[in-house]
Design goal:
Helix 1 packs antiparallel against helix 7 and helix 1 runs antiparallel to helix 9. By secondary structure, this protein is an alpha+beta fold. The chain folds into two domains: 71 residues, Glutaredoxin, CATH 3.40.30.10; 116 residues, Up-down Bundle (Glutathione S-transferase Yfyf (Class Pi), Chain A, domain 2), CATH 1.20.1050. The chain has a four-stranded mixed β-sheet, with helices on one face. Helix content is 57%, strand content 6%. It binds glutathione (GSH). Glutathione binds next to helix 1 and helix 3. Glutathione (GSH) binds next to helix 1 and helix 3.
Length: 221
């Protein structure tokens, strides 16, 4: 059986977890795996990140690659449309959201969530780059009612995890939510989080958050 390895505070782990639940795939989870640069961990996940997926044929890392693998291996409940152009549009939205929004906001996380110093130069470069990413996301997102259109897709699995984190990080860093000017985001998140799979993953994340707080009382997240 396939096994998802990572931890439930990770938005990338949760992106895959919710896709597995939505697709109704039988899977195991090891939620105790943490990122590491140790040799033995790099042998499993070459960038030292989570998540990775164990399959009968071997391991796969990179959450979007894992989602594509799941689409190929478990096509019964698809999270991508059939038509090539429509598939391209979903992947385009997902790439913009991750490369130009989440990954940019991620530069704030050490400062806003883990107590590291956050210098002005970083804040300014993040603010500048995020303005472009958020503009592109806003141009591409459909909210009709799902983020990429009328069907639930892999883009929703990602958006539901990343958007709240980007809002929180930018509120903490800049005193304003960079997504506040996209009025569809809040109702979209309320709608998507009402789905049982998304509600379950959110509840597991909150449990993991409480456990992390109990371990490290100073941590923000
Ligand atoms: N592009 C990767 C990103 C995964 C990622 O950044 N995971 C974080 C946890 S949310 C991590 O492992 N961070 C540790 C590190 O970057 O060394 C994916 O989609 O799987």
């Amino acid at each position: 059986m396939i096994k998802l390895c990572g931890f439930r505070l990770s938005n990338y782990h949760n992106k895959v977890l919710v896709a597995l639940l939505e697709k109704g795939v039988l899977f195991e989870e090891d939620a105790s795996v943490r990122p590491s640069q140790a040799e033995e961990y790099l042998a499993k996940s070459p960038m030292g990140k989570v998540p990775y997926l164990e399959t009968p044929q071997g391991r796969l890392c990179e959450s979007s690659v894992i989602l594509e693998y799941l689409e190929d291996a478990y096509p019964e409940r698809p999270l991508l449309p059939k038509a090539p152009f429509a598939r391209g549009k979903v992947r385009e939205l997902l790439a913009v959201l991750e490369l130009h929004v989440e990954l940019v906001a991620r530069r704030l996380y050490p400062g806003v969530f883990f107590g590291a110093a956050l210098d002005e130069a970083t804040k300014q470069s993040v603010e500048r780059d995020l303005a472009k990413g958020v503009r592109a996301f806003r141009a591409l997102a459909r909210f009709a009612p799902f983020v990429a259109g009328s069907e639930l897709t892999i883009a929703d699995c990602a958006a539901a995890q990343h958007l709240p984190l980007v809002s929180l990080a930018t509120r903490l860093a800049f005193g304003r939510d960079v997504l506040a000017d996209i009025p569809q985001v809040k109702p979209y998140l309320a709608m998507i989080e009402a789905r049982p799979a998304f509600a379950q993953v959110k509840a597991w994340r909150k449990e993991a958050q409480e456990a992390a707080k109990a371990e490290r009382p100073g941590a923000a997240r």
